Amino acid sequence: MPPSLYRVTDFLSRARELDAADTLAPFRERFVIPDEDLVYLDGNSLGRLPVSTRERLHQAIDEWGGDLIRGWDRWITLSREVGDVLAGGVLDAAPGDVVLADSTSVNLYKLAAAACAARPARHVIVTDDDNFPSDRYIFQGLAQARGLELRVVKSDIDLGVSVEAVREALDEDVALVSLSHVAYRSGAVADMAAITAAAHEVGALTLWDLSHSAGAVRVPLRSARVDLAAGCTYKHLNAGPGAPAFLYVRADLRRELRQPIWGWFGQRAQFDMAAEYDPMDSIDRFQVGTPSVLGAYAALSGAKLTAEAGIGAIAEKGAALGAYAIEVSDAWLAPHGFTLASPRAGTRRGGHVTLHHTRAWQFSQALRAAGVVPDFRTPDRLRLGFGALYTRFVDVYAGLSRLRDIAEAGTHLEFPEQHARVT
Amino acid sequence: MPPSLYRVTDFLSRARELDAADTLAPFRERFVIPDEDLVYLDGNSLGRLPVSTRERLHQAIDEWGGDLIRGWDRWITLSREVGDVLAGGVLDAAPGDVVLADSTSVNLYKLAAAACAARPARHVIVTDDDNFPSDRYIFQGLAQARGLELRVVKSDIDLGVSVEAVREALDEDVALVSLSHVAYRSGAVADMAAITAAAHEVGALTLWDLSHSAGAVRVPLRSARVDLAAGCTYKHLNAGPGAPAFLYVRADLRRELRQPIWGWFGQRAQFDMAAEYDPMDSIDRFQVGTPSVLGAYAALSGAKLTAEAGIGAIAEKGAALGAYAIEVSDAWLAPHGFTLASPRAGTRRGGHVTLHHTRAWQFSQALRAAGVVPDFRTPDRLRLGFGALYTRFVDVYAGLSRLRDIAEAGTHLEFPEQHARVT
Hints:
2 copies of one chain form a homodimer.
Chain A: H1 3-20, E1 39-40, H2 51-67, H3 72-75, H4 78-89, E2 98-100, H5 104-118, E3 124-128, H6 133-146, E4 149-153, H7 163-169, E5 174-180, H8 192-201, E6 205-209, E7 228-231, E8 246-249, H9 293-309, H10 311-332, E9 339-340, E10 352-356, H11 360-369, E11 372-373, E12 375-377, E13 381-385, H12 393-409
Parallel strand pairs in A: 1-11, 3-4, 3-5, 5-6, 6-7
Antiparallel strand pairs in A: 2-8, 7-8, 9-10, 10-13, 12-13
């Protein structure tokens, strides 16, 4: 038996063994998977459709058709219901700490503006240079409008932002530190507890973007004494394209903070239609306009599924999928010029593993043509996202073996170097 | 034949004749109507479910399940597609003038903030005291944050805001005039052209809330030279509970205006993930975060249906339904203490007619119990909303005859005076 074939068999057997031992394996049946041949490794961009969500959405559409305006008697509390499921089952938070609202970007704006307004004598927002673009744009806009300084910490593109780098940027003029818990490109996990503690030492507030961590890893909001957080539901929470985002505000801060977009869904007794804005004391004060009912049902259904599986089991499986991918990549892809662009340690990594290659964009197109959906992130990163509830070890095997085949045959060179509009 | 029975027959015959002559009557079949006995007179709060929307949503859910992230290759332009259908078929605007985004409240915030920033030497926002609460709250928040004066014009609760009242509030310090095109309580239509012209005379910009007018009456954005507008899609555009809102910015203003929430969907070549925010020149610069795909498909489907029927025919039928309702109400309900709380002239009224009664809340509960869904608006208004695409004259007849029966029997007195959370 030639060595390469031996290794193939070896990794495949390992994948099958790992799948057989996977306690989350039964959850794959809870998702709509119309094409079993497709290898989907982009659940960290858009999660799969849960069976329960498909059913719940069909039902919600017919509730609209039949109940009409009367449906709002129930729908009015949906954003809070989803928040409570997220708080208890996904984030380390208490009922009433979380609410579904708007998009992640709008929530970051509301919370960052509220935080800066609560620290009027301070003039600095700290973020890092590899934070997600929308986060950075939001802070740039706020800084320009309010005459604040946006202090940008240098982070390692593969290993994420370090506690030391953040600490060096902190002083008594910092109002807010805002970072992503899991870096969108590398999947690196920031040390939420240490960074939050460092921010608190200088009297600053923290705002964490949980878009890539909620539903993928443990998010220690309560134990880390996090002040504020926001995140999306369409990645690891499987709520569908453009589903509403969520936000978190620590209970003791809630009444002190006032967000700038004063809408009727934040108003006390909103249907009294009072002349003056008087926000609720609860987390509802961070709501603005009429929320999407379909979006809320999808988020509810997705959050319940994650809570049922348990975030501990999900995080463990995510780390194991990543470790397996790294091992296979080291053996098969490193010889073709791929290098790991994520932390190697499972505890420092979120739900995806990123590989660097100068021709990453061409490889990502070749993979799609070969029935594998990865994610490309500019300029030269291939992101392999794992949904612990539906991604099998054999999927990772299939994706990486096809990538190796492409690299060996050079078929990626047939694809354009020019990027598409959507990557 | 006793006189009252004669009159009953008379109004019913009239309703049947009007329905028989109604060129929009075939559109009723285009909606899902599971309960033919229900008399739904609240389409101005939440429009009915179109058959095409139900199908399109089912399809979109399965596209998510099957296409997964690849769906974004198409979804990325959806917000603009909906905008173009609204521009051409519903509003008097050009392709590229309108985009679907966020909620109405968030859009009002973005546009009002952008307008005030574009008139930095001016310090006043003008609105009216019966504008929708969320509009007023948004402006209160902006005024407080930016040290502006919110100048509140007195409007007539039944007849709406007059050109004269607005003109008296205008001077060279006014940055923005923002009003609702159709008043949420009375349905009164404001004189968009005259008020916009008056605002322009003093160098102010105008921002119109079209929530109650889009899909109900002609909205002369272009001919009135309106600067900015926003509105919702879940009322007369039938896009479902909490569907995304839209916004309009006049072409020549677009590059001058910069909205304050800098998100990645407003960014030029967003997937390049550039470090600095650099908004697109197009209407897309007013987008923020990832938009709801299901919401966009529902809005697209609803907007197409309205465009197909034609806003002229819709406005005419809406006015005729209102005229009929007023005639029946004058004859049957005035003796029981109901008075008209809307303009009498069809050209001055949007898609609903409002009746005043001190026991309006009890009547609205009694109507619901009798299979009629009206809308209650605090403190003492019964709103009867007509969806020209699905409301028949016989529905108006049925609703008002049951209201008369309730008033005659006094059954409304059996219902609580205390308001519910959602009205």
